[in-house]
TrEMBL record:
Keywords: Signal. It comes from the Bacteria. The keyword Secreted does not apply. Transmembrane segments: none annotated. This is DUF4142 domain-containing protein. Residues 61-201 form the DUF4142 domain. InterPro entries: DUF4142, Ferritin-like. Pfam families: DUF4142. Residues 1-27 form the signal peptide.
């Protein structure tokens, strides 16, 4: 039952792309955005309805590490887009920080796994996260210039909130190797710092639009 529950919960992280885009589209209030949001919300529902009994998943340290690595890759891809398309200097700086932090995070994680002789193990969950990176990226790239910064920051707040929940409730309590557990705790603390800054930037941008 615990393994089934873990698989279902991590699958919801993969559905983050759909939930973020669907909520952003709904908030836009435009026909095109709402239509796209409805399409991706349907995809999210299909992902969330994946039966926990349909596939066993080994909750190994390698499997957990692969999920973290896949999440880092999503952040890297979005940061590269934001560095080019963001208009606000603060958003550009945040995107640069995300690019550097998550690139270094994957380098550090890979080095640790080699030292511990732990092999990252791809799972259905990590594959779904990687697959949905392109969905978020495509949506972000299509944002009009005046909406891009706020959309990117909304995505960042939502993604970091999901990451914190996954780390607190699933990954950190269940990782077996103590060195890897310490690294996940460091990642957790960094994610909390990133989310706090993302929320502050999001609030600043929202106030600017109200004027």
């Amino acid at each position: 039952m615990m393994r089934h529950h873990f698989k279902h919960r991590v699958a919801l992280i993969a559905a983050l792309a759909a939930s973020v885009i669907g909520s952003s589209a709904h908030a836009g209030g435009r026909g095109g955005y709402v239509h796209q949001g409805a399409q991706i919300s349907e995809l999210q529902q299909r992902l969330e309805e994946v039966s926990p009994r349909s596939e066993e998943i080994q909750i190994s340290d390698g499997a957990l590490a692969k999920v973290i690595s896949a999440a880092n890759e999503v952040e890297i891809s979005l940061a590269m887009i934001a560095r080019k398309q963001a208009r606000s200097r603060e958003v550009k700086d945040f995107a640069r920080e995300m690019l550097e932090a998550h690139t270094q995070g994957n380098i550090r994680l890979s080095a640790l796994l080699r030292r511990l002789r732990i092999k990252a193990q791809p799972t259905r969950a990590s594959a779904m996260i990687a697959g949905h990176s392109s969905i978020i990226a495509a949506y972000l790239q299509k944002q009009p210039a005046e909406k891009f910064d706020l959309t990117y920051m909304a995505i960042q707040v939502r993604m970091h909130a999901h990451a914190l929940r996954m780390l607190d409730e699933q990954a950190i309590p269940r990782v077996k190797n103590q060195a890897l557990k310490q690294e996940l705790q460091r990642i957790r603390d960094e994610a909390a710092s990133h989310m706090k800054r993302a929320q502050a930037i999001q609030a600043t941008l929202a106030k600017g639009q109200e004027r």
